[in-house]
């Protein structure tokens, strides 16, 4: 059974940092693109960042320079370092992995940025 499990969310003050982790199991994702989406209440889901197997990255304009995505292929894990957090970053963050044919999703972790 394939599972993606996120961790690291929580409540943080504006300007603070969080590091999200996503551990994948059930299959080898070393050849899969992995990444993070987020969805805030009343808003559409948006791609935050993604990383290919060879380390190429893409970021949403709203997080460029503040967020960094990385991966550990040996662990089938993907991470999202989030710095200089803003209230508008508040959302449920979900990790995903795609083979190009099948997409796998985690359950999501809540990130709340508030003073």
Describe this structure in words.
This protein has no helices and 11 strands. It is mainly β. A hairpin with a 5-residue loop joins strand 5 and strand 6. The model has no long low-confidence stretch (mean pLDDT 95). It has strands at 3-7, 10-12, 18-25, 33-39, 46-51, 57-59, 67-72, 77-82, 91-98, 103-105, 109-113. The strands form 2 sheets. Strands 2, 4, 5, 6, 9, 10 and 11 form a 7-stranded mixed beta sheet that branches. A 4-stranded antiparallel beta sheet has the order 1-3-8-7, with no helix packed on it. Helices cover 0% and strands 52% of the residues.
Count of beta strands: 11
The helix content, as a percent range, equals under 10%
- In one word, what is the shape? globular
Structural class by sheet pairing and helices? mainly beta
> Would you identify the regions where 5 or more consecutive residues have pLDDT less than 50?
none
Distance between the termini: 40 Å
Strand content: over 45%
Order of helices and strands: EEEEEEEEEEE
Mean pLDDT: 95
Largest sheet: 7 strands, mixed
Radius of gyration: 13 Å
Q: How many H/I helices?
A: 0
In a nutshell, what does this entry contain?
The chain is mainly β. The chain has strands spanning 3-7, 10-12, 18-25, 33-39, 46-51, 57-59, 67-72, 77-82, 91-98, 103-105, 109-113.
């Amino acid at each position: 059974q394939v599972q993606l499990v996120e961790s690291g969310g929580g409540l943080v003050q504006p300007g603070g940092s969080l590091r999200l982790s996503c551990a994948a199991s059930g299959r080898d994702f070393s050849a899969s693109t992995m990444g993070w989406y987020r969805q805030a209440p009343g808003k559409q889901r948006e791609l935050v960042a993604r990383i290919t197997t060879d380390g190429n990255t893409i970021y949403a304009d709203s997080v460029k320079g503040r967020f960094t995505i990385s991966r550990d292929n040996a662990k089938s894990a993907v991470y999202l370092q989030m710095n200089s957090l803003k209230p508008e970053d508040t959302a449920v963050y979900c990790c995903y992995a795609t083979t190009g044919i099948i997409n796998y999703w985690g359950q999501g972790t809540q990130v709340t940025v508030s003073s």
